Automatic annotation (TrEMBL):
Source organism of this protein record: Salisediminibacterium beveridgei
Any one GO BP annotation for this protein: potassium ion transport
One matching Pfam family: TrkA_N
The encoding gene: trkA-2
Domain RCK C-terminal residue range list: 135-218
Protein name: Potassium transporter TrkA
SUPFAM superfamilies: NAD(P)-binding Rossmann-fold domains (SSF51735), TrkA C-terminal domain-like (SSF116726)
Entries under InterPro entries matching the protein: NAD(P)-bd_dom_sf (IPR036291), RCK_C (IPR006037), RCK_C_sf (IPR036721), RCK_N (IPR003148), Trk_Ktr_HKT_K-transport (IPR050721)
Residues annotated as domain RCK N-terminal: 2-118
Molecular functions per Gene Ontology: monoatomic cation transmembrane transporter activity
Length: 218
């Protein structure tokens, strides 16, 4: 379904979001107070606007109230980010998603009602660290400080075994939520089906348990 998004702040994060959402077929309004940034996004957005979003009247004037979903990707200027979010929540925008610069910024954003807060650099850093430390990890999503979802490559050590044989939930406390084989993704994996080398196990659990499973079984 086609949705409408406004993106405020066209640095690396904001402009990547803009390109991707536009590429996915959504309507995207790209906003920045720097005309050069705005111009660069013209081919990758539906509408663009040069605007200082710390002034509430500017936001009202462009009809920001018509947007259900606004992403604030102003990073370095924390004051500008906070003021912008404050106005957006005052204007009752239902979904305001914000890029946070640090934990203090995060706390303030929470207090003023940001609906979702991202730490892209940190999240990407954690992700890359996981890839670097194990060649069995193919993908990784941080759910919280303790929990994650990982895609793990089945080695010959478990080839020919079934999920029942491995007894993963009882022994390791984590769960296989899907198995990918070639182009097929099975989201209700049969616990009695044998695994092959090269299958990809999509697993959810405590990071420590997932690491124990990786080191002990794969
Ligand atoms: P990234 O890491 O995504 O490149 P960043 O964390 O370095 O971004 P900035 O470059 O400080 O963040 O901000 C992102 C964008 O937000 C910039 O293009 C900047 O011009 C824009 N911006 C900053 N303040 C305002 C404002 N008051 N109104 C509109 N845009 C703003």
């Amino acid at each position: 379904m086609k949705k409408q998004f406004a993106i405020i702040g066209l640095g690396r994060f904001g402009s990547s979001m803009c390109r991707e959402l536009h590429h996915m077929g959504h309507e995207v309004l790209a906003i920045d107070h720097n005309p050069k940034k705005v111009e660069a996004m013209e081919p990758f957005s539906t509408h663009t606007m040069v605007l200082d979003t710390t002034d509430e009247n500017n936001l009202i004037r462009i009809g920001i109230k018509n947007f259900e979903h606004v992403i604030v990707a102003i990073g370095e200027n924390i004051q500008a980010s906070i003021l912008t979010v404050l106005h957006l929540k005052d204007l009752e925008i239902p979904e305001v998603w914000v890029k946070a610069q640090n934990s203090y910024h995060h706390k303030v954003l929470e207090k003023i009602g940001a609906d979702r807060i991202f730490h892209p650099e940190e999240e990407m850093g954690n992700r890359i660290a996981e890839f670097l430390t194990s060649e069995k990890v193919l993908d990784y999503i941080d759910l919280s400080v303790d929990y994650s979802i990982v895609e793990l490559l089945a080695t010959e050590k478990i080839a020919g075994k079934t999920l029942v044989d491995l007894d993963i939930r009882a022994k390791y406390g984590c769960t296989v939520i899907a198995i990918k084989q070639k182009n097929k993704v099975d989201v209700t994996p049969d616990p009695n089906e044998t695994l092959n080398k090269g299958d990809i196990l999509v697993m959810i659990g405590d990071k420590k348990d997932l690491r124990r499973f990786q080191d002990g079984v794969l």
